[in-house]
Specification:
Elements: H1 2-18, H2 20-31, H3 40-43, E1 44-46, H4 47-52, H5 54-64, E2 68-72, E3 75-80, H6 83-107, H7 114-131
Parallel strand pairs: 1-2
Antiparallel strand pairs: 2-3
Amino acid sequence: MNLFIIKVGIIIISAFLFKKILIIKSLFSIIKEPECSMNIKEDIKPISYLKSHTAEIIKNINTNHRPIIITQNGEAKGVFIDSDSYQKMKNTNNMIKLLILSENEMSKNDGIEQNEVFKQFDEKFKKLRNEL
């Protein structure tokens, strides 16, 4: 399974190298989902509200997928987000890290040809499959 994820990552990175604009547009569409836009009147709450309305807040963030800013003494101290939005954010962050790493390798000419990478993964995958 890990090899599959790595192979998919390499395919995406390869696509990025050849079609940067399309991948960047895709990443920004993930980041700028309209459902994530914030409503200042509804999405900033004091910690006292959190204490007395926890179930309602959890229901709302899972329904509208908007983060809730929690304040304490008038200052933002925390952010609540639903688990799906958090996972999307982590996945996007990891993808951006992979893209940055691949660009750094390219700028140093420190990469491996795509065909060689797939050949190595196919060999390792076959070896793992035979061990199972």
